[in-house]
Amino acid sequence: MTTLTAPAPAPAARAHLARWLLRLHRPALYVWTGLVLALTALLLLLHGPLTDAAADAWRQYDACTDWEHCTYNQNAILRYKDWYNYATLALAAVPFLVAAWAGGAFGKELESGTARLAWTQSSTPVRWLTVRLAVPAAAVAAGTAPLVWLHHLAWAAGNGRIDTAKQWYDIPTFHTNGPTLVALALCGLAAGALTGLLSRRTLPALGLGLLLTGAVWTAAQLLMPRLWPTRTSSGEAYFALPNSSWTWRSGKLADDVAYGDYHPAAHSWPLQLTTTALLLAVAALLTLGCYLALRRLTGKTTAR
């Protein structure tokens, strides 16, 4: 009598696949952990000593009356500006880094035949895809969310204290100050996975993942100001708007009076949340596209 070995339960199989996936992409995990730790250290410095030194320098500068004998710490101002820009741009690049990794990883597994080998020996295609999306998504969210929070703290520490601090509506600052960055990173993951499943080659998938993520990012910038009702100001009131008001559309009325449609600083979080909701919907659609591409690739509906 032949003894049949029952297949492992789905949760156990998924756990095994997750551990195997972490071992397979250990170098990428190390790089991601190092990036998170480095940005954490930099953002803590920005929140504390770098901002304090720059704020003191601006107080010295603003208090100057005798410019021939005025002294202030210009290096502290420039140091804050440089490191703030470095941290912000590095954090804003995370969705594109994730897209490049996902496109290359999925494309490589399909190009080398590793994926099909896994489907026939240890996993169904649907389970394979689910684990390869869920585990990186958890790692990306777990690393990005604290960085966004720290960046917002660092920005808030300089807002109103440093004359050249970025306004909330500065595009890189806007995204790195709130949950839109997490949503963009998840879009990058799904975009890279989709291009990998469609092209089944490493380099094309990497490049197409970057392009698709860039398209999502561009669309988000175009739609974002329209996701929450603007206010309109004209005449002298328009020119008296504070710097914290984001005028994204302006013109002249029939009587040659200037006007502008603007978002006040109070619209920062409504715009963050509506943009995040839109990007999460896009990420869900891209993820659905991954499963449809997998179904087309395998030629049949596969069991979980």
Description:
- The protein is mostly helical and 304 residues long.
- It has one domain.
- It has helices at residues 10-24, 26-62, 74-92, 94-112, 114-121, 125-158, 171-176, 180-199, 202-223, 235-239, 268-298, and strands at 231-234, 246-252, 258-263.
- Strand 2 and strand 3 (258-263) form a beta hairpin.
- Helix 3 runs antiparallel to helix 6 (125-158).
- The two termini are 29 Å apart.
Helix percentage: over 70%
**What is the molecular shape?**
globular
Quote the beta fraction. 5-15%
Domain module count: 1
Uncertain stretches of 5 or more adjacent residues:
1-8
As a whole number of angstroms, the C-alpha radius of gyration is 24 Å
Strand order of the largest sheet: 1-3-2
Largest beta sheet, briefly?
A: 3 strands, antiparallel
Please, how many helices?
11
Cα separation of the termini: 29 Å
Helix and strand sequence: HHHHHHHHHEHEEH
Multimerization state = single chain
What would you say about this model in short?
The chain has 304 residues and is mainly alpha-helical. It has 11 helices and 3 strands. A hairpin with a 5-residue loop joins strand 2 and strand 3.
